Amino acid sequence: MLYKLYMKGFMIMKKLGSLALAAFMATALSISASAANEFDAAAGTPTIDGVMDDAYLAAEEINIDVVTSGDGKTTGTARVLWDADNIYVFFDITDPVLSEAYTATDCYQTDSVEFFFDLSGTPGDITTINAGQYTAPAAIPNASTDWAGRGMHWDNNKADATFKSVITDTGYTVEMQIPWGSDYTPKADAVVPVAFHINSDEDGKDGREGEVFAGENQTNAWSESSSYDNLTLTTNKYESPVEEEPAAEDETAAQTADMGIIAALASLAASGAAVLSLKKRK
Fold first, then answer.
1. What span, in angstroms and rounded, lies between the C-alpha atoms of 161 and 137?
2. Are 172 and 97 a contacting pair, CB within 8 Å?
3. Does 257 score more than 80 pLDDT?
4. How many CB atoms lie within 10 A of CB 182?
5. How far apart are alpha carbons 209 and 198 in whole angstroms?
6. CA-CA distance, 177 to 182, in Å (whole number)?
7. Cα–Cα dist 93/166, whole Å
8. Using CA atoms, how far apart are residues 190 and 43, in angstroms rounded to an integer?
9. DSSP helix/strand/coil, 273
10. Amino acid 142: pLDDT
11. 3-state secondary structure of 257
12. What are phi and psi of 214, to 5 degrees?
């Protein structure tokens, strides 16, 4: 009897151990699946005109394609530059239907992009830490030329931030310039938590239907920063291609070839003259 009770207890403990292991594995997989993306910015100072400067080519192209709502037809990419004064973000958005009119009081309700970042060093509510949400609308008819956003960094620096949007054949671009602010000093190899977001008015009327992010589980990025991805401020810089001049030996070879052609023509001419001379003697 005691042996049966012992074996029954052993089997129960074994089953509980298996369940605990399964729960642990599920938790581990969940954490792994939601791990932050790692992105690289490049060093450089672009002109803010909505057209991508070559300087951005040194930065990583970041795909914005995690669809959380909508039909998934709107996607985009982003590239980031930085210097001692500002962080620069260039969005290139593919959007098959742009709003025909803009009447929303908040531009996140229409075609627009959003950049979030946290300079505090400790994730939290962006209204109480040095973090910000910067939202810029596409250059659609009647669109606002002003930012929308929130966060402590936004409150302190929005007056010195600027953006430019341009309509393209496939959608639109937005280029942002945002000051670091007096509470943060950028350094090479520093890691900045960030998030990239697209809002899409998919029916061409006022009101958002689609949302797309660069990372997973970022629908609350507007509120707190714990889900942000990591952006490293690298020292990579764009270097213009240098056109190589022809080597001296190439020029010599070309001249030699030209002299050979001239000599051949002279020989042909001489041969022709000799034939004519023979004909005359006959």
1. 14
2. no
3. no
4. 8
5. 11
6. 16
7. 10
8. 12
9. helix
10. 80
11. helix
12. -85, -25
The structure's pTM equals: 0.76
> Residue 115: CB partners within 8 Å, gap ≥ 6?
78, 89, 133, 134, 176, 178, 194, 195, 196, 197
Rg (CA), the chain: 32
The residue length of the chain stands at 282
Here the tokens at position 60 are: 């990583």
Q: What are phi and psi of 276, to 5 degrees?
A: -60, -40
Identify each DSSP E strand in the chain by its residue range.
38-43, 62-64, 66-69, 75-82, 86-94, 112-118, 131-137, 148-150, 162-167, 171-179, 191-200, 210-213, 229-233
Task: Write out the two tokens for 112.
Answer: 């627009």
| DSSP single-letter state for residue 169 | S
Could you tell me how far CA 265 lies from the centroid of its own chain? Answer: 61
Tokens of 89: 């973000």
Q: Is the pLDDT of residue 12 over 50?
A: no
CA 196/CA 228 separation, integer angstroms: 9
